[in-house]
Amino acid sequence: MKYLKLIRPQHWIKNFFVLIPMFFGGELFDLESITNGIVVFFAFSFIASSIYCYNDIVDADADRSHPIKCRRPIASGAVSVRHAYWLMAAMFLLSMSTLLLLPPLSMWNVMTVVLFYYVLNLAYCSKLKQYAILDVCIVAFGFVLRIIAGGQAEDVELSNWIVLMTFLLTLFLSFAKRRDDVLRMNETGEAPRHNTSRYNLTFINQAITITASVTLVCYIMYTVSPEVTEHFGSGYLYLTSVFVLLGLLRYIQIAVVDQKSGDPVKVALHDRFSQLIVLAWLVSYLILIYL
After folding, report:
1. Using CA of residue 146, residue 134, residue 136, residue 127, what is the dihedral sign?
2. Average pLDDT across the chain, whole number
3. Do 156 and 27 meet the contact criterion of CB atoms below 8 Å apart?
4. Which residue has the higher pLDDT, 192 or 55?
5. Is there a contact between 117 and 145 (Cβ–Cβ < 8 Å)?
6. Which of 16, 110, 122, 141 is the most buried (most CB within 10 A)?
């Protein structure tokens, strides 16, 4: 259980982003695309778990003074640093081995993306996350890399829209997550991260508002753009903007009113209202794209 806690399988939900190109590319019922998408999902999940191991090794000392992170396996002493490095290496090898299941051409393309993601995040854990703004941009770019890998594996060409909206949405979520750190810093007087002192509530609230607004505008422009309406053969895509607006407002409510935006995965798994909004949005696209 302690090793399972270290690799954080509950966070694998983030890697469903690799399936987005297949969904919007109209390949949802194509067996080969589904198979390749699942392979990339697990490859990214394993590589992410390897990064989680390294992150907890690097942050062990800081985590011990955190009210919640002190329970992490390495910080609590349940797992030794040496064993964590072994698990980190095992997860990396498992990810690379999983990619061997892809067709040769796709395999090399996806492996390049995954390795770049891995190196970038090792640098992020080691040093780059200490720089405010850059840290959230790297997190958001990681999700862009996920959809790029998914598109390569599923043989779906990504539009500029999907790349831009993925970056903006995850940037919004990242700023909302940083808000939780700022609140803890204000309460305790200690910064939970090295760069938290470079944020404050005024800046974070404005950043959340800006990224949410730009995300919504970008999405509306996407739904009414001629190439998209022609591709999907429907002029009613703009109606789905209602679900995006509701989703953004709900998450802002969770961040500002409930002050529980510190773990987006927990929100996705437990907030019923958010789940209903996402489900309604998915069903609307299923109807518009596939029926």
Report:
1. positive
2. 90
3. yes
4. 55
5. yes
6. 110
Residue 171 pLDDT greater than 80, yes or no:
yes
Per-residue pLDDT for 215 more than 80?
yes
pLDDT at 291 over 80: no
CA distance 44 to 109: 14
Q: What is the pLDDT of residue 219?
A: 93
Contacts with 149 (C-beta within 8 Å, 6 or more apart), sequence order: 18, 40, 43, 44, 110, 113, 114, 117
Q: What is the dihedral of CA 186, 192, 197, 202, to 10 degrees?
A: -50
Helix (H, G, I), strand (E, B) or coil at 160: helix
Strand residue runs (E) in the chain: none
Q: What's the half-sphere exposure (Cβ side, CA atoms, 13 Å) at 153?
A: 37
Minimal CA–CA distance to 258: which of 154, 183, 157?
Answer: 183
d(CA 275, CA 57): 33
Residue 284 is classified by DSSP as H
143 pLDDT above the threshold of 80: yes
Q: Specify whether the CB–CB gap between 140 and 167 falls below 8 A.
A: yes
- Straight-line distance from the first to the last Cα atom of the chain, in angstroms, rounded to the nearest whole number: 44
The answer to whether 199 and 134 are in contact (CB under 8 A) is no
Residue 245 near residue 252 (C-beta atoms within 8 A): no
> Which band of pLDDT confidence, cut at 50, 70 and 90, is reported for residue 112?
very high
Q: Residues near 194 by Cβ (< 8 Å), separated by ≥ 6?
A: 129, 130
Alpha-carbon distance of 189 to 210, in angstroms, equals: 27
Residue 69, pLDDT > 90, answer no
Around Cβ 46, how many Cβ atoms within 10 Å?
Answer: 24
Between the CA of residue 16 and those of 22, 42, 216, what are the distances in Å?
11, 10, 21
Q: And the tokens for 150?
A: 């998914």
Residue with the larger pLDDT of the pair 194 and 184: 184
